[in-house]
Design brief:
This protein is of the alpha+beta class. The protein has one domain. The chain has helices at 2-21, 23-30, 49-55; strands spanning 33-38, 41-46, 63-67. The protein has a 3-stranded antiparallel sheet, sandwiched between helices. Strand 1 (33-38) and strand 2 form a beta hairpin. The chain starts with a helix and ends in a 9-residue tail after the last strand.
Length: 76
């Protein structure tokens, strides 16, 4: 069980790094959309998060990020 969790976290981290390394190319194709990434591949995209989640078979084990060229403001 612990080994499986470690593998899932490593996979998630790998996809996170891949998205950040390829952000410019991904922004050209998916600007203002949510993307779902698995094994360094965009497996789904949609401007609506709920629609994206409905397209992904296992969202809890998929890296999901909103791609935008606009700076995001965070309110804490």
């Amino acid at each position: 069980m612990e080994e499986q969790l470690t593998d899932q976290l490593r996979s998630f981290e790998t996809d996170y790094v891949w998205v950040n390394e390829n952000k410019d190319a991904l922004l050209k194709e998916f600007n203002d959309q949510w993307i779902a990434v698995k094994d360094k591949k965009v497996i789904a995209s949609d401007p609506d998060l709920n629609l994206l989640l409905s397209k992904v078979s296992d969202p809890s084990h998929t890296y999901i990020e909103f791609m935008t060229s606009e700076p995001l403001e965070m309110i804490l």
